[in-house]
Amino acid sequence: MKKNSIVLIIGLMSLALIGVLAMQFYFLRDSYRQKSQLFDESVNAALTAVAGKLERREVVDFAKVQQERNIEKSKQEQAKQRQLTEQLRLQTQIEELRGKLDQVYQKYKVREDKLKALYPNVVNIENWFYETYIRRPQYQDLVEINIIKTPTNSMYYQEDVIVSATKTIPRIEAKDDSTRFLIIHFDDYKRLIGRDLFVLPPRSDPKLARKIFELETKLNKLSRQNARYEFNVYDSVAMLGGKKADYIEDVAIGMELAKRPLKDRLNVIIVQELLKEELAQRDIKAPFNIEIWSTSNILLNNILNEAELNSPKNTTKYSTALFKGDIGAAPGKLTIYFPNKKAIIADNMGYLLLPMLALLFLLVGCFAYTLIIIFRQKKVSEMKTDFINNMTHEFKTPVATIMIASESLKDPDINADHKRVQKLANIIYDENVRLGNHIERVLDLAKLEKETLKLDREDVHINDLVAAVTDSMQLRMQNIGGQFSVDLAATKDLVVGDELHFSNVFYNLLDNAIKYNKGDLHVNINSKNVGDNIVITIADNGIGMSRDHLQKIFDQFYRIPTGNVHNVKGFGLGLSYVQDILRRLNGRITVKSEKDKGTTFEVILPIKK
């Protein structure tokens, strides 16, 4: 593979990996924003629900106290004036009916709050609107649902759902006094996906209201008869304003409630419990801190015991007004904040983060593995190219020699000389044998790669075999002026293997020692027993190898580079063949070498037991 192709592949793969990383980052960031927005909406809804409950709780408690006071006052007046007995009875009955009517309203209010807490988009619709548009299928298409965004004090918008009609048609009056709500369903992109109708019982009991009205009429008539000139403050204000006395009394109660200090109107423990309950209903169970403000002064900065956290300056705070039903401005506000909000949202995104990281590591691993394979294949390709060049060079000499000898045989003068013909024939034969040996070595390596080479399993005395190989190499050693030192001291040298291939192993090792010499070659050959193994050591004082080459000499086709000089013949297959044969025969080989100091090979074989 060409260098430009490799660079192009790496560039494209890197670009694809960067693209995947960018897409994952964008997806995580967008998911975090959506989770954060949903978290803010849930917390604000919980705060609103808590504020409503606190206000209703105060009204109910004060109404009970007020009712007890009225009953006690009526009892005292009854003891003083017998003529007011009937009036007291009517008053008591009215108060009881009002209490029941209040209970009806409170039950309705609890259901309404649960409905609004359960569904974020709940819109109250008038009964005439339901009868006119929604109940009649042919006019349901006229119903229009819109989201109105109103900017708030913070960076967010308050969204209000408005239900209206696109066309005005004759109104059909309500047939009952039930309370109806439309539950609007939006998808994540605020698109309408559905709506449901939810019906609650009436806010008030008409029978109770009618009974109260009748009793009040009787009470007023009785009061005019028995105490025509006695009026309280509420009656006087009512007469001047043209209002009913009970209405004026409700206003007075509201004013009296508003006069109380805010710290006396709140119970911190109840506030905390209500907040925990509302947040838990929305799957938020993280620790939070509470602040209660009165107009401009902070009344309470309460850190929950299990949190014990400090509020960072950039922490998002959520607030809602307290007692919004008071006349005038709200007397205070309730604020909460989560010091570890980011950690909460990150935990909720854990199910997305882990698979994405796993996929990312998988892609990076595949990318790295692909690069390794590409460079490895490039290296193998280069080594095979060198092998072909070496093979061409090695085959060229015997082929040229055979060609020259063959052409000489064509000369009639040479043909007539029997001795010269015999000599040329011997040359041709020797070169053919040499060429055949080269081809046989290449074929043996091919068989090793294909796992088709068959090895015999017979008893071999390694000492005798090494001695025989050394003897056969003596002539070559003498030609270069070197010498062997043989010390085969191993007492147990019987191993199981293939004698021919064992001979080739040691022939290759000695052949390399002779090839890579620097003059005055000396090769030490010895054997010894180590445990259940026999170790044959072949050490020379040749040119040696650097550490970089030492790690590659057992690779196929690898030859230590010598520049443009080709004075050492070979294919780079010998040591690869040696290692593969020893591995198949349960042996192994190790090597130690220093540049310009020599090389030591150790062949380790298991002894036959």
Concise summary:
The chain contains 17 helices and 16 strands.
**Biggest sheet statistics:** 5 strands, mixed
Please give the radius of gyration in angstroms: 52 Å
* Amino-to-carboxy terminus distance: 51 Å
CATH superfamily of the domain at 454-606: Histidine kinase-like ATPase, C-terminal domain
| SS content category | alpha+beta
Coiled coil: 64-107
Catalytic activity: ATP + protein L-histidine = ADP + protein N-phospho-L-histidine
GO molecular function, one term: ATP binding
Domain Histidine kinase: 390-609
Please render the helix and strand layout as text.
Layout: H1 3-80, H2 85-118, E1 122-125, H3 127-134, E2 143-151, E3 157-165, E4 179-186, E5 192-200, H4 206-226, H5 233-241, H6 245-259, H7 262-265, H8 268-281, E6 289-294, E7 297-303, E8 317-322, E9 332-337, H9 341-348, H10 350-409, H11 412-416, H12 418-449, E10 458-461, H13 462-472, H14 474-479, E11 483-488, E12 494-497, H15 499-515, E13 522-530, E14 533-540, H16 547-550, H17 574-584, E15 588-594, E16 598-606
Parallel strand pairs: 11-13
Antiparallel strand pairs: 1-4, 2-3, 4-5, 6-7, 6-9, 8-9, 10-12, 13-14, 14-16, 15-16
Helix pairs in contact: 1-2, 1-8, 1-9, 1-10, 2-4, 5-6, 10-12, 13-15, 15-17
Structure, explained:
The protein is an alpha+beta fold and 609 residues long. The protein contains 17 helices and 16 strands. Among the domains are: 350-446, Signal transduction histidine kinase, dimerisation/phosphotransfer (DHp) domain (Helix Hairpins, Orthogonal Bundle), CATH 1.10.287; 454-606, Heat Shock Protein 90 (2-Layer Sandwich). Strand 6 (289-294) and strand 7 form a beta hairpin. Helix 1 crosses helix 8 (268-281) and helix 15 (499-515) runs antiparallel to helix 17 (574-584). The radius of gyration is 52 Å and the shape is rod-shaped. The two termini are 51 Å apart. It is found in: Cell membrane.
